[in-house]
Amino acid sequence: MTKEVVRKGLSLGERPTHKDSSALRESRFGFADVKALHDCRSSMKRPKKDQVTPERLMQFGFAYAPPLIIGAAVSNKVFDSLATGAKTVAQLSKETGAPVRGLRAIMNALIGLELLKKDRQEKYSLTPESEAFLLSNKIGTLAGFFAMVSTHILPDWLHLSEAVKTGAPPIALNQEATGPEFFSILVENIIPMSYPAATTLGRSLGLAKKREPLRVLDIAAGSGIWGIALAQQSPLVHVTAQDWPAMIPITKRTTQKFGVSDRFSYVEGDVLEADFGNDYDIAILGHILHTEGEERSRKLLKKTFRALKSGGVIAIGEWLVNDQRTEPLPSLIFAVNMFIHSERGDTFSFKEIKGWLEEARFKRVRKLEAPGPSPLILATKP
Ligand SMILES: C[S@@+](CC[C@H](N)C(=O)[O-])C[C@H]1O[C@@H](n2cnc3c(N)ncnc32)[C@H](O)[C@@H]1O
Fold it and tell me: In terms of domains, do 12 and 137 share one?
């Protein structure tokens, strides 16, 4: 069942069922499949437990290939062209203008990745997963994310050896001079990572049943997807979205696409410098602590505490590691991503963040199971 949910994913507006949620808890939104990719999708046999063989390492040797193949297919309109019906490689070549040889290679690899199917007439078609998440014109598509892997993510990773040697990241996205150029491309492309979790958060806070106006502060809002998902659940929700000035037009654009722009206002500036205002019922920190690092995160939690009213709730979306920093693998890999992309970024454990929340005087620090890389962390201002 876990695999079923991973493949199916959750599209925008679709709410995870209880059954889905427990499967997602095990699979963590399919990110656990980084490992499965190496285990299952290779024709190589798995070595017996007590045998040391080179197979696993050899599989890692091409681990960079799937996102690049998906990105190449997105950029060459493979998924978009197949949205109108099954086609042969020659038909697709005619439609996209890309020569047959490369197209055939990536399309067959996509069959191996279970993102395309091929029938007896050599016609390729989409799978439910590629149809749901890899068509470029759908809200909540991951197509843009895969297209930017080769242009905006992988180039920085190519400096990893040197960065480890010197301790200096090739680029610091936590700074206003460099961050917005990257984040303005990223934020809409990661909507599918946070929308289902934000929907779960709104339901767990019972927003639909509230009878009083609710003030939400969405810190480092990016696309604004956390606030948008909450605003969708009740007309009484008003969201204040905060981000660097260059990012706010993107937030505004997304709120318009989702039809909730009339319930948003904006605060521009650095997370530690901007004036958040106060008396909020809910404050959201969606995927910002890992960029900020420990020292600034602790300051930010204290500042957020001051912005909430008594009884207000803080909700944190993060890539959590265990206390020993030995798992889960996607969060460990994401820590390397933050090393490459920031001066102090990292992934943290629940215990660490709980400690910082308590230091900021929050109470009832707890986890909320939700789709996404990790459970959400919630705490209440007494
Ligand atoms: C990974 S994105 C997350 C966006 C959104 N919260 C989400 O979960 O989809 C990080 C966001 O934080 C913003 N950001 C990063 N550092 C910031 C800072 N020091 N001050 C203000 N915004 C910052 C970026 O512009 C970007 O929108």
Answer: yes
For residue 60, is it within any domain? Answer: yes
Distance 61 CA to ligand 1 centre (A): 32
Residue nearest to atom 16 of ligand 1 (CA): 174
pTM tops 0.70: yes
The domain total for the chain is 2
Tell me the pLDDT band of 50, cut-offs 50, 70 and 90: confident
Judge if 186 and 319 occupy the same domain.
yes
Looking only at the bridges linking them, the beta strands covering 308-317 and 280-286 are parallel
Q: Is residue 89 part of a domain?
A: yes
Q: Cα dist. 296→60, 135, 292, 299, 320 in Å? A: 35, 38, 6, 5, 17
Q: Where are the alpha helices (DSSP H) in 113-233?
A: 128-133, 143-148, 154-157, 160-166, 179-189, 191-204, 225-233
State the CB neighbour count (10 A cutoff) for residue 211.
Answer: 7
Q: What share of the chain is helix, strand, coil (3-state, %, to 5)?
A: 50, 15, 35
Distance 68 CA to ligand 1 centre (A): 25
Q: How far is the CA of 101 from the centre of ligand 1 (A)?
A: 41
Secondary structure, 3-state, 292-351 = HHHHHHHHHHHHHHHHEEEEEEEEEECCCECCCCCCCHHHHHHHHHHHHHCCCCCCCEHH
- pLDDT tops 80 at residue 299: yes
- Is residue 194 lining ligand 1, measured as CB closer than 6 Å? yes
Tokens 């936590």 appear where?
174
C-alpha span between 348 and 322 (Å, rounded): 8
Domain holding 189, by residue range, is 179-380
- pLDDT exceeds cutoff 90 at 362: yes
- Cα of 295 from ligand 1 centre, angstroms: 17
Say if ligand 1 is within 6 A of residue 334 CB: no
Residues 103 and 140 both lie in one domain: yes
Q: For residue 213, which amino acid is it? A: P
